[in-house]
Amino acid sequence: MTDTTADDTNEQREVRLAKRARLLERGEQAYPVAVPVTDTIAAVRERHADLGVDESTGEVVGLAGRIVHLRNTGKLCFAALQAGDGSRIQAMVSLDRVGEESLADWKAVVDLGDQLFVSGEVVTSRRGELSILVAEWRIAAKALLPLPNLHAELSEETRVRNRYLDLIARPAARSMVLTRAKAVASLRSTFADRGYIELETPMLQTQHGGASARPFVTHSNAFDTDLFLRIAPELFLKRAVVGGLERVFEINRNFRNEGADSTHSPEFTMLESYEAYSDYNGIADLVQALIQNAAVAVGGSTTATWTDGTAFDLGGDWDRISMYPSLSEAAGVEITPETPMDELVALADRLEIEVAHPIRGKYVEELWEHFVKSGLERPTFVMDFPVDTSPLVREHRSIPGVVEKFDLYVRGFELATGYSELIDPVVQRQRFVDQAVLAAGGDPEAMRIDEEFLRALEFAMPPTGGLGMGIDRLLMALTGEGVRETILFPLVK
Hints:
Shape: elongated
Largest sheet: 8 strands, mixed
Subcellular location: Cytoplasm
Structural class: alpha+beta
Number of domains: 2
Strand content: 25-35%
Keywords: Aminoacyl-tRNA synthetase, ATP-binding, Cytoplasm, Ligase, Magnesium, Metal-binding, Nucleotide-binding, Protein biosynthesis
Protein name: Lysine--tRNA ligase
Number of strands: 18
EC number: 6.1.1.6
CATH superfamily of the largest domain: Bira Bifunctional Protein, Domain 2
Distance between the termini: 14 Å
Binding site for Mg(2+) 1: 407, 414
Strand order of the largest sheet: 6-10-11-18-17-16-15-14
Oligomer: single chain
């Protein structure tokens, strides 16, 4: 998986194990509990950014980092130390500073990839490179395996399977981690400014619900019962709204036992929020603010600059289109909630569109994706979905046969979804019954009747708007990368 063969790797490992043994035999540590670090590489570089060529500062510091370049030449040896943030500094180990024995030890035990501590004066070399003129050094952690070639591009397989190597070798990998952290911090800040509180809901559930998805199943020995990994936190967050927590959100891990591709991962991070006395129009305003604020936090502008240099405009007010009218216009034939099923099936068959779950709404959504989705360039809210594909959503206040739901499309993929929530427990029960019929018919994604949630609704949930947004997909929109690049440790076979 690295640039060396298995035989080369095993040979190098044996050599490095011998060096580890040599350290231990001399009473030194290959993995000390601590080293006397006094500063960071980044801070030293910032303080001395204006040093000229071959200058001395008189400042002595203790620094640690990974050796990413090593050159031993006679009486003077050089190593480039890299900190976790990617900042580097040169260490110069000279005979006149450390003595003959220490220089010989350096050449005998130090390898590329080792974590190293050095102490010495901050200087610049004859080439003007900021350096530590080493007076003392020691191994902070001995690397037993060689690093990949840091001058060659890592394969995607190596990057996702060995993310630690990716983080060492590739600035873009470290940047993605920082970008994600900034984006999530911005989301929390936007919610805080709007009076939301962050909650935590169960990841192990006795009944899966809150989305149409195939769940992962596990077993609890303590309770001797099967449990489901959460596919969504929705039904618990709504219980909180019933209890009087009127603005809540959660950033959580969800698990869906489905396919994996460039936009889907079986394990992913989801943001869900609920706001009492709002609706899907207010939630659309909220999600636009969340994403635009995250873009500014990450890149200083609502125009996101992707890793390939593309500028993607997330600014301004985003378009809002309705599903049925936009489909009718693109297809050249009027399609409404009353369009007979056989007409939808015939149109899908002519276009060779396969529909996994043959209900009316699924046909409408698949046809819409075929005709409309690929033409959406700017971020666009697609409003007003079929009622039979959205069992937890309120029916539209003025248009029969649809619900007050939007999907936000960015870069051609669904990034977020929002709702005017269904709060009538009688209607909700009937929706669950309809889903149970589908489940009995073999639909693995259909929801089951959740009596505990229905009981909570019967204590009166206020009118509420809800939001769901994938954090991994948000990073895709902000960086232009695929989903596996946005997840630090993606699931791989």
